[in-house]
Amino acid sequence: MSALAGKTAVVTGSSRGVGAATAKLLAGQGANVVINYRQKAPRANKVVAEIEAAGGKAIAVGADLTDPESVRGLMQSAVDTFGGLDLLVLNASGGMESDLGEDYAMRLNRDAQSDALSAGLELLPTGGRVVFVTSHQAHFIDEVETMPEYEQVARSKHAGEIALTERLPEMSEKGVSFVVVSGDMIEGTVTATLLNRARPGALEERREAAGKLYSVEEFAAEVAAMVSADVETGHVELVGGADDFLTRTQG
């Protein structure tokens, strides 16, 4: 029997990309999954339909993570539908959008993550786990420069990681463990597409430096594995291409 059988997971930003792929993998291991979307209900419902067709259990819940009330509704839906909340995957991020205000990246990637953790901690039991998904470009931003087009996002995601990590004692007090999963640029994601549009050739450069870039499915498998992996709380899992960053950090 899978370690996730009967557990309930909320995966933020899971109507597409890494979030959707992670949600499907967790459902495949027996977890009940709450698919979260901001605007695109049909896309989220499609993920739910795919999970159900494969014999899994899922619901789609619209919630804007920058709205605290909306976030509490999202977490509560796990309890109302499946009887509890055991796992929280903080995957949603953004900030490359140009129409949501200058401070949007920080509001979404730092403030909203911390607020989602607060909302989750009200419901997570002893043995619960929180997984924060980030990028090497953000994780190493203080030591390794990134593309100017991505800098605002990278700095805000890094601020989010710090804000969450600073709350490790609070999580430990509740018996909840915390894991960070950091990946390189990922083929086929919205961020990679936007970056490559802003700076043609950016993806090719990363691919050469890293040796290879993970696909959405490959990276999601690493995120899903960390949801139940036997690791210390506060563990940072560096997925693919990190050697290049680590070399430059030490260099």
Describe the structure.
This protein is an alpha/beta fold. The chain is 50% helix and 16% strand. It contains eleven helices and seven strands. Strands 3-2-1-4-5-6-7 form a seven-stranded parallel beta sheet, sandwiched between helices. α1 crosses α10. The protein is globular, with a radius of gyration of 17 Å.
Descriptors:
251 residues; alpha/beta; 7-stranded parallel sheet; globular
Walk me through the topology.
Blueprint: E1 8-11, H1 17-28, E2 32-37, H2 41-53, E3 57-62, H3 68-82, E4 87-90, H4 104-121, E5 129-135, H5 136-139, H6 148-165, H7 168-173, E6 177-183, H8 190-198, H9 202-210, H10 216-228, E7 235-239, H11 242-250
Helix pairs in contact: 1-2, 1-10, 3-4, 4-6
Short description:
This protein is α/β, with parallel strands linked by helices and 251 residues long.
